[in-house]
Amino acid sequence: MLESEESLSRGTVLVVDDTLENLDVLDDLLTGHGYEVRRAIDGVMALRAVAAEPPDLILLDIMMPGMNGYEVCAKLKADSATWGIPVLFISALDDAQDKVRAFETGGVDYIPKPFQAAEVVARVATHLQNALLQKILEDRGRALEEREQQVRQLRQRVKRLEEVLGYYGLDPTSI
């Protein structure tokens, strides 16, 4: 298994909501489905938690005192260390403009409150799988770039060897 597969397969979810009841319900739901759940009650606490140990996915409420969910998401997406973490907004705001703003700030999904447990689990699973596949693609892309660099270096060596052989009047194809 690739390192990226191991790091994402544990499924760490940071749940950010200022309502303790929502935190408890989501924590129980996700823990019951095998996810490791971390909690934050406001935007500042969420950013600190992400900086300390980035989760695989964030479930983020919009309406919170102090820093709202849009601001948290914008800060995460502006940081090269956290921009790739999928953010799923979960909110009682039901206006189309609120949903559009969630996507414009970098959210990958929007779950309305009150939420259905099965829907939350399905969306979390889908976005964790998407993140895993993205990470695998990135890892394979880096591996391909490394192999291409090795091929370029080997071609340069072959060219130098052909030049040396040519200097001595030897045909490289006859050796």
TrEMBL record:
SUPFAM superfamilies found in the cross-reference section: CheY-like (SSF52172)
A Pfam family recorded for this sequence: Response_reg
GO cellular component: cytosol; protein-DNA complex
Keywords: Coiled coil, DNA-binding, Kinase, Phosphoprotein, Transcription, Transcription regulation, Transferase, Two-component regulatory system
PTM-bearing positions, type 4-aspartylphosphate: D61
InterPro entries: CheY-like_superfamily (IPR011006), Sig_transdc_resp-reg_receiver (IPR001789), WalR-like (IPR039420)
All copies of domain Response regulatory, residue ranges: 12-128
Domain of life from the UniProt record: Bacteria
Record flagged with keyword Ligase: no
Biological process, per Gene Ontology: regulation of DNA-templated transcription
Entry GO MF terms: kinase activity; phosphorelay response regulator activity; transcription cis-regulatory region binding
Coiled-coil region: 137-164
Protein name in the entry: Response regulator receiver sensor signal transduction histidine kinase
Native source species: Gloeomargarita lithophora Alchichica-D10
